[in-house]
Design brief:
With 491 residues, the protein is of the alpha/beta class. The chain contains twelve helices and 25 strands.
């Protein structure tokens, strides 16, 4: 061992990896459901918030309502149903402080590898603590690391980009000191990041063009929910929040099902709503007519129609075309059109990554996460005592993360009652299992990164997450022995 390295530390009952919204939620559930359990949180960065601490590009905000995205145990109290990144980061940090969770976080502790020992019935975690290697041990590990790479963005081939003499930026690494006032900006991409960026950039830029290869569905939504506002005025706070949260959960569920079962009707509805927002001189086709059905990719939401407002003011435009080459001063398109630019923003998606890039092994045998099935959307096949937190992509993330935390705490209580020291998901009849995408989206970044994520199948308990209501029921009352093998160790 290097003299600068630390020897194995005391044994924790649980180690949570990641202090984002999933990690803070998991910590709360551990404290309240398992009060005698010892735990800590390892956070690679220097602050609480995860995604909301990392992204700092202009206009960064939620793309789902905060009544469901917020914690079930600490209601979102502000009037805006869709909020900016600073407000969400503040909310997460205040929640952690309120319940003493912030005192459990070890900052600048990046998980490098984790090895499970059947003999010791424990995990040995190798952690990078600002260049120094440290070891932690735990009986159970919860990976609240999200599903994308914090250090590297999704690469995209843009012909001639190196010839450009202006500034090229990826939103994931936005420079704090960038001055874009009176600049001509081209945002390459049509996902939620581009739709979020453009209204904010357009406030001071000379003009912002969204260059898309294919369109996305964009829906305007009130920033302040009138129902929630009146409920808080007329009802006790906790009742108002409960009703508002349930309302958003039900409406989201019904809308996604409507889109799935009646895609043509959903297309027509979204088209009708889009036409109401567009300036009279801009047609719906081709710039707002996607090739796919609603919710085959994530819908882009804009509070109070700010994206369309920028277009009505003439500060923003949408171009559907492909890039021939980037020149020194702009972008030449296949149609022959040229987009002049001082700044090019490559909003081309996220690079998927599981476990924050950490290497997982069982008795020193490496585990390839992309080759393992996921038990109940929570635990990796053949990997003992490890949960991975995956929320929803067709609804707010947090309810899915909470269903995971509730399932894990219930499982740990059950293990204690049995006297079991480990639970291992085992797939007995793999040849009968047909793979099903874990993230049911056709977005480019999801398709390209699918091999980085665990597999899900067509049979329980290996099926992908479905809806919050069924997942919550399963977490609280469902079978938690099917597909698991329990062991009793001597430690």
């Amino acid at each position: 061992m290097n003299p600068a390295d630390k020897a194995p530390a005391d044994l924790f009952d649980i180690i949570v990896v990641g202090a984002g919204i999933s990690g803070i939620n998991a910590a709360y559930r551990i404290q309240t459901k398992l009060p005698s359990i010892s735990y800590t949180i390892l956070e690679a960065r220097g602050g609480i918030g995860g995604t909301w601490d990392l992204f700092r590009y202009p206009g960064f905000r939620s793309d789902s309502d905060l009544y469901t995205f917020g914690f079930a145990w600490r209601p979102w109290a502000e009037q805006k149903a869709m909020a900016d990144g600073d407000s969400i980061r503040k909310y997460i940090r205040e929640s952690a402080t309120l319940y003493g969770i912030d005192q459990k976080v070890k900052f600048h502790h990046k998980l490098v590898s984790a090895n499970w020992s059947f003999d010791q019935q424990a995990w040995d975690l190798l952690v990078d603590e600002e260049g120094r290697k440290t070891h932690f041990r735990a009986r159970f590990v919860i990976l609240s690391t999200g599903y994308y790479d914090y250090d590297e963005a999704l690469s995209s081939h843009i012909p001639g980009i190196k010839k450009f003499t202006g500034t090229v930026i990826h939103p994931q690494f936005w420079p704090e000191d960038l001055d874009y006032k009176d600049q001509k900006i081209v945002v390459v991409g049509s996902g939620s990041t581009a739709v979020t960026l453009i209204p904010s950039l357009a406030e001071t830029a000379s003009h912002v063009s969204m260059l898309q290869r294919s369109p996305s569905y964009i829906l305007a939504r009130p920033a302040i929910d009138s129902f929630g506002w009146w409920a808080q005025k007329l009802l006790p706070y906790w009742i108002a929040h409960r009703i508002t949260r349930i309302r958003f959960l039900v409406l989201s569920f019904l809308f996604t099902k409507f889109c799935a079962y009646y895609p043509l009707a959903a297309r027509n509805l979204i088209k009708k709503l889009t036409l109401k927002e567009l300036p009279g001189n801009i047609p719906h086709d081709p710039d707002f007519s996607p090739r796919y059905n609603p919710w085959e990719q994530r819908l882009c939401l804009c509070p109070d129609g700010d994206f369309f407002k920028a277009m009505r003011l003439g500060k923003a435009s949408v171009v559907t075309d492909t890039i021939t080459t980037v020149t020194e001063t702009g972008i030449q398109l296949a149609s022959g059109q040229t987009l002049d630019a001082d700044i090019i923003v490559t909003a081309t998606g996220l690079k998927l990554k599981s476990a924050g890039g950490a290497h997982i092994s069982v008795d020193k045998n490496p585990v390839t996460i992309g080759e393992k099935y996921l038990w109940k959307g929570v635990m990796l096949q053949d990997v003992p005592n490890m949960a991975t937190v995956i929320g929803y992509t067709n609804a707010s993330w947090t309810p899915g993360a909470d269903a995971t935390a509730l399932l894990v705490t219930r499982l740990l209580k059950s293990m204690k009652a049995k006297g079991a020291t480990s639970a291992v998901p085992r797939l007995e009849h793999m040849k009968d299992m047909k793979p099903v995408p874990m993230l049911n989206l056709s977005s480019t970044y999801v398709v390209r990164g699918a091999k980085e994520l665990p597999r899900t199948g067509n049979k329980a308990p290996w099926m992908p997450r479905s809806t919050y209501f069924s997942d919550l029921w399963d977490a609280k009352f469902g079978n938690i022995t099917d597909g698991l093998r329990f062991e009793k160790g001597s430690t």
